[in-house]
Design goal:
The structure is a homodimer. By secondary structure, the first copy, chain A, is α/β, with parallel strands linked by helices. Chain A is built from 6 helices and 15 strands. Chain A has a single domain, classed as Carbon-nitrogen hydrolase (Nitrilase/N-carbamoyl-D-aminoacid amidohydrolase). In chain A, α4 links the parallel β7 and β8. The longest helix of chain A is centred in the middle third of the chain and has 22 residues. At the A-B interface, β6, α4 and α5 of A face β6, α4 and α5 of B.
Chain lengths: 298, 298
């Protein structure tokens, strides 16, 4: 099968976990009624974005894999006959937590797990406090429709991650995300950030000849400090292997957006832009260095 | 010094080599009169783009480094007190030719050489016939104004090249280029290609927090077959470390475009987007593989 449909669920996080999971299940139902084969939920969709502050009580929000959330989504995946990409705050052991996702297959089984490899830490995004760096590597999973790579948010800024997933065969990379503007950023800075976020992901599609699907949340969430917080910018989108955006969501509304994925387009693009053929794998060892000191030649 | 000026010389290649070198020297003079510190010429600017066909006679167009062209540009660099990035078809030995560039310093000396690492081969761009793959690695040169990376054309599609140059300290990457549309491509395909070309290079700026400067030629050059050929698309541009285009040329005219480079902007961008900090250098070894077979996990 070379063409099939995916759905990105752009949603707002409510305070109550139960409300979020019910909405997610409802969205999976709606998407499957529209003939979708793979549904992707946003990063950490079960909760508000708690990483705006460092609070040990927030570790209570984590759950194991398999666990309560994956159980309910496995039931739904089986009922609807769809794949679900389900991101969640994973409790792996006492003191070992991850920003993870599971791939649930149409039989209702967990068929893959990915743990966010690149962990940010910036004002308002204190993720290094909560999440141990992932140890899954950059995964690629077979769905029968396509091989899919699943990365999470901050990973989207790293061409290394997209490249390795592509070398493993990924034909689409999904990026569940929680990204927005902090209070008091100016309008110009906001549009620069949003444009950069789209550009860098479209470039992964181009340089690898793959589809890319980014799934963000929307809505303002308070940080608890002086009325500040993050306004999550939505703008979920799918682009094709030439980097052309084929569907996109608004910046403010909850939406389910659909895209048809055609692997013939991927084949055609890679025949005309054969970037993978000419990689200089003999010359890339320095990519494993943090920085290369004292290098300039003159 | 944290701010200085660069010039990109977008030019049309004439049939006569002497005319091309005279125009290049004239452009360097004009740019230096405008207070520019570094001038970049387009890929293979001394000749028409001979790679549209495979012809052993074309090896006569190559010249050694140092050689006649570098000699004249060294004289001009010293006279004007500027750096010149001078791309040329290099004859290194009988049967060993490269698509190269030299960095000439304001003292009139050759202070760096780069040999194109990624070599394309597509209809109309038969470069693998002419050019041995470079063996310089992805260089970074100190100019006193900034550390600069110098890559060439097809390299621009490879995030690996931009990353390694950045890890070596490059604060600007220059991409001398010869890219265009072949006869009979439709308008939609043309705009997709141009947009992808800009997007992937802007993404290198974003993911590395550097300036990027792409310098293309303009004009139609016949292939010698049925009136076909390549219409080189110009559109030379410079973008800042957030990927915002700060100057750009037209698609058809010969132009010298100038950009002010401010390394404080680079510092500020990397403080706010600290992508280099979080690279998973422990997990990138697979980047040295051509492809990773039989990987999908399910």
């Amino acid at each position: 099968m070379s063409a099939f449909k995916i759905a990105l669920v752009q949603s707002r996080a409510h305070k109550e976990r139960e409300e979020n999971i019910k909405e997610a299940i409802s969205s999976v139902g709606k998407a499957s009624a529209l003939g979708v084969n793979i549904v992707c939920l946003p990063e950490l969709f079960l909760t508000r974005y708690f990483c705006q502050s460092e609070d040990t009580n927030c570790f209570d929000l984590a759950e194991p894999i398999p666990g309560p959330a994956t159980h309910r989504l496995c039931v739904e995946a089986k009922k609807r006959g769809v794949f679900i990409i389900c991101p969640l705050f994973e409790r792996r052991a006492s003191g070992v937590y991850h920003n993870s996702l599971v791939l649930i297959d149409p039989a209702g089984e967990i068929s893959g797990i990915y743990r966010k490899m690149h962990i940010p830490d910036d004002p308002g995004y204190f993720e290094k406090f909560y999440f141990a760096p992932g140890d899954t590597g950059f995964s690629c999973f077979e769905t029968g429709f396509a091989k899919i790579g699943t990365l999470i948010c901050w990973d989207q800024w790293y061409p290394e991650a997209a490249r390795i997933a592509s070398l493993k065969g990924a034909e689409i990379i999904f990026y569940p995300t929680a990204i927005g503007w902090r209070t008091n950023e100016d309008e110009r800075s906001k549009s620069t950030q949003l444009e950069a976020w789209k550009t860098v992901q479209r470039a992964h599609a181009i340089s690898n000849g793959i589809y890319v699907a980014a799934v963000n949340r929307v809505g303002f969430e308070e940080s608890g400090e002086n009325g500040g917080g993050i306004n999550f910018w939505g703008n979920s989108f799918v682009c094709d292997p030439q980097g052309t955006v084929i569907c996109e969501a608004s910046g403010k509304r909850e939406e389910i957006i659909l895209a048809e994925i055609d692997l013939r387009k991927l084949e055609e693009t890679r025949r005309n832009w054969p970037f993978l053929r000419d990689r200089r794998i003999d010359a890339y060892s320095e990519l494993r260095q943090r920085f290369i000191d004292n290098n300039p030649s003159t």
